[in-house]
Amino acid sequence: MTTCTGNPSRQRLFFLDNLRYSVVFCVVVLHAALAYSKLLPWWYVLDVDPGMATVFDVIVLITDVFIMPIMFFIAGFFALKSIRKKGPWLFIRSKLTRIGIPLLVGATTIVPIIGYIYESFRSTETASYGYVAYWIKYLEGFGEFYVGYIASPAQFSHSYFWFLSLLFWFFVVFAILYSIKAKWFGNKSVVPEQRDSNDPYALPVLLGLGVITGISLVIMMPSFVVDGQEPWVIIANLVQFQPTRLFLYVFYFPAGIYAAWKGWFANGNAVGRLRIWLPVCLGMILVFLGSFQKLSGGGTPSLSVLIVYCFARAFLCLSFLMVFISFAYRYWNYDSKVNRTFAANSYGIYLVHMPIILGLNLALVSWLGGPVVIKFCIVTVASILLSWCLSCFVLKPVTGL
Hints:
single chain, mainly alpha, three-stranded antiparallel sheet, two-stranded antiparallel sheet, 3% strand
């Protein structure tokens, strides 16, 4: 194993690589758990055991809070270093290759597969025509450049590739703003050499992040929650997102850029203390789950319940970010063969995991009486390993991703 020693500012931040692949694993856990949860009645494959559904509801609720904001934070953190190295034009060109091409290929090949799984599970007439007919019909939506809500999994969409579409446009806006900044103020690096002291504004920035994302949820949820669900919007096949969560990503991405700019992890000291953030996180879990139960209890929720829910969700997300960062920085900031291979293939795992999960979900539905906990464990572990194999031995050799 290789640990970070010497000048931390010149060392690779292994803990962020490790954190990134662990969050991708959480994505797999989330998508595997949805088949056994009752929260999304439209999910592609459902195998719900009423006696265990609450357990999987909790898994889904909690993981869904923090996964994507943390991924946007990490993406923002690495974006600053990348654009300084490549310049705005090469930066965008590299993102077009690394994100745009997988998005196009995934939306036209992988997403139809999971859409067909949706139809097959429900034994619809569409499924009876066969996959080729379904695929051709599905691709007709590609040329419609639809703008509006996604009404069904059978409708053309980016599905789980939405992250790539939204992230790409974040990179484009960031590159434009960076170019303007470089033109007006010069392109000199301003990362401070903070070896003896932390960023004095780190805590205010973090607390401000929690407050502003909480406010955004309070504003957006009443307008965009429909029948207890947070619908998806697609804009001309260029970008897809959930309006209720958009501003979480809008603020977490620049928070990552700010962290890189201020050299949060370049001084040998972690930002945040585990002994502080872990109790906060545990407390926020209780408040979040309690407020969610009241919010979903039927009828129109009171404004006070909505506010408590939104701020609990926002600060739970923030506390998870800080728990992961403070833990990983102190105890997981090293290189190893396992860490290296999973980190190198985390992107590939994300790209291919969904059809594997849903295929396994569908196969295990026929295991009547099989404990859903065992099914969930099989799907999760097998999906991670199979996705890693595909990434390592197919995607990387063929595409270099």
